[in-house]
Amino acid sequence: MKESKKSTQLKTENCQQKTRLINEALVAEVRADFAARSAARRETEAQWQLNANFLLGNQYCYLNIGGTLEDADKDYFWQERGVYNHIAPIYKRGSQNSGACAPK
After folding, report:
1. Left if phi > 0, otherwise alpha if psi is -120 to 50, otherwise beta: which for 67?
2. Residue 57's closest CA among 89, 80, 93?
3. pLDDT tens digits for 67-76?
C-alpha cells in the first residue's frame, strides 16, 4: 500500500515537472516570437511616427541611426525654421474625397 502511494506521488511529481518544462518552453517561444516581430516592425513604426510629425507640422525632425526621432537644430544662426506644411492639405483633401466614394 505504501509503495503504490509512493509510486502515485512520483508519477504526479513527474507529471508536474513535465508540465512546468512545457510551460517554460512555451513562454520562451512566445517571448522570442514577440521580440522578432517587434524588431521586424520597428522600422515601419518609426516611419509612421515621422509621417505623423510631418502631418502635424514638425518638419524639422529626422530618424537617427537607432530608429528614434530627433529634432534637427539650426546649423547656423542665420537659418530660419519656417513651417511649410504641404502634407496636411493633401491629407485632408484625400480624406474628404474618400468619403464621397463610399460603397452604397
Report:
1. left
2. 89
3. 888 888 888 8
